[in-house]
Structure formats: C-alpha cells, structure tokens
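Design request, tokens follow.
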C-alpha cells in the first residue's frame, strides 16, 4: 500500500513516549509529520529536509506546516501520528519512496509501523 502522508497529519507529543530528536531550522517548507533528515544547505548550515528513500531518517517533523528557516522540532522512535485520513491502513511496516512524504509497504527499509487504521508509529531511524 502506497500513499502520501496526510496534510492533516497530527500527534500529541505529551501522549506518546517518543524520542525528541532535536530542534533545527527547516531547510524547506515541510508539511505536518513529514519524515525528515539533516542536510547542509548552500551555506553549509544543517537544516531539516523531507527525507526520501535511501536518506537517513531522523524522525518526523512537528504537526504543523513549517516554512523554510523556521524552527522545527522532530520526533523519532515511538512517535505515533495520524498519517491517513481514510481509515484503510493495512497492518505491517512502511518505508519511504522516492517521493517526499510518500510511504509504501513495499519499501525495503521499514521506518514506520501501522498501529491503527489511520496511525503510523516511527519504529526505526536510519537510511
């Protein structure tokens, strides 16, 4: 099953025992709960960018739209978030594709696990 994480993605960090992986500035505009990685911009400054397959995932961005150069928190293993508006997630793990914000059960590197018909949880970091 392949889908783009909902633009309505959300979580409550107080209710989930997740690892806070840091607060950096966003290097680009990010949708809520976007899988993110660190990259250096043209000035050599490290920023959060949307991660795609093959990149090192450090977690998901906070549950709001973040503009480039705004501060942005990220959360890692254990973070459960609303990822799909349609209640049709299938059990199993989901990894990233080559499309920003897209996840797929057929991906070779699992990052998320379905924990309900609408929610995913970060279960692995890395690339």
């Amino acid at each position: 099953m392949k889908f783009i994480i909902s633009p309505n993605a959300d979580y409550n960090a107080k209710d989930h025992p997740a690892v806070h992986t840091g607060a950096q500035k966003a290097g680009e505009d990010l949708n809520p709960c976007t899988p993110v990685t660190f990259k250096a911009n043209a000035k050599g400054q490290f920023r959060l960018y949307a991660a795609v397959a093959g990149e090192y995932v450090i977690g998901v961005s906070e549950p709001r739209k973040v503009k480039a150069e705004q501060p942005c928190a990220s959360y890692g293993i254990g973070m459960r978030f609303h990822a799909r508006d349609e209640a049709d997630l299938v059990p199993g793990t989901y990894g990233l594709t080559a499309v920003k914000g897209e996840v797929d059960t057929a991906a070779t590197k699992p990052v998320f696990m379905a924990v309900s018909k609408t929610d995913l949880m970060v279960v692995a970091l890395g690339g």
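Comment from the thread starter after seeing the answer: thanks! Residues 2-122 form one domain.
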